[in-house]
Design a protein that fits this description.
By secondary structure, the chain is of the alpha+beta class. The chain is built from five helices and five strands. The longest helix has 34 residues. The radius of gyration is 23 Å and the shape is elongated.
Length: 232
C-alpha cells in the first residue's frame, strides 16, 4: 500500500521573517523589471534608450533629415526634428549603418565606440535580470538559513553586476562625447544620457538596499532575531 504524499513537508513561502521577505521580494522584483525593460530597450521598446546624440543647431522641422540618434541595447533609431524616423534592429551586436551616420553628420568613430560597448551591456543586462530573478524567488523562503545565505550572496553579486552595468552606461556616454566628430563644418552635437541609464541607477540603489535587508536576516543583526529557535 502506497503511503500518502506528505504535502505538509512542502516548504511554504513567507513562513517566517515575512516583512523582510516581502521587502526583499518587492525590491528585487522591481529591479528585475527595470533591468528587463532596459534590456528590451529601443527598438523593441522605443520609449527606452541608453544614449541620445542630437544636433545642437536643429534643421528645418519640415525636413526629413535625421537630426538625432537614439541608441538602445538592440538597435538604433535616427529621428528628424519632429521625432519621426527609422530604426535599425533588433539585432544582436548590431552594426550602425553608415548611411544613417552620414545623414546626421557623424563620423564612424562614434559608431565604433557604441557598437563595442552596447554588446557588453546586452550581456550584463541579461545576467543582472537572471540574478534578480533568483534572489526574489529565494526571498520568499528566508525561514531557511541556507536559503537566506544563498539569497544574500546572490544579491551581492547582483548588486555588483548592476553597478557595473551603470558604470558601463556612464563610460559609454563619456566616450561618445570624446569621440564626437562632425562631418559637416560648423555642426555641433550633444550627447545625453537616456532614460534607460536612470532606470538602471534606480535598480542599483534598490539592489544595494535589499542587500542590507537580507544581511540583517542572514546574520541576525540590525534588530532581527530568529523567529523560532529551530531556524535552519
Amino acid at each position: 500500500m502506497k503511503r500518502p504524499l506528505q504535502f505538509s513537508r512542502i516548504p511554504r513561502p513567507l513562513l517566517r521573517h515575512r516583512y523582510i521577505g516581502l521587502a526583499s521580494f518587492t525590491i528585487f522584483f522591481a529591479a528585475f523589471l527595470l533591468s528587463l525593460l532596459v534590456g528590451l530597450s529601443l527598438p523593441i521598446i522605443k520609449s527606452i534608450y541608453l544614449v541620445k546624440v542630437a544636433a545642437v543647431d536643429s534643421v528645418d522641422p519640415t525636413s526629413n533629415a535625421a537630426t538625432s540618434l537614439l541608441f538602445g541595447v538592440w538597435g538604433v533609431c535616427g529621428l528628424n526634428a519632429l521625432g519621426i524616423g527609422e530604426c535599425y534592429g533588433p539585432q544582436l551586436g548590431y552594426t550602425i549603418p553608415s548611411d544613417i551616420l552620414s545623414l546626421v553628420g557623424l563620423s564612424q568613430s562614434v559608431a565604433t565606440v557604441a557598437e563595442k560597448s552596447i554588446l557588453v551591456l546586452l550581456i550584463l543586462h541579461l545576467v543582472s535580470s537572471g540574478l534578480s530573478t533568483i534572489v526574489f524567488v529565494l526571498s520568499l523562503y528566508l525561514h531557511s538559513h541556507p536559503a537566506a545565505i544563498i539569497a544574500l550572496i546572490t544579491a551581492i553579486v547582483t548588486a555588483l553586476v548592476s553597478s557595473l552595468v551603470f558604470a558601463v552606461d556612464v563610460v559609454l556616454v563619456v566616450l561618445m562625447r570624446n569621440h564626437i566628430d562632425s562631418l559637416f563644418l560648423g555642426a555641433r552635437f550633444s550627447v545625453e544620457f537616456g532614460n534607460g541609464v536612470w532606470m538602471i541607477l534606480v535598480a542599483v540603489v534598490m539592489t544595494w538596499v535589499a542587500v542590507v535587508i537580507l544581511s540583517s536576516r542572514a546574520c541576525y543583526c540590525l534588530g532581527v532575531r530568529p523567529s523560532f529557535p529551530d531556524d535552519e
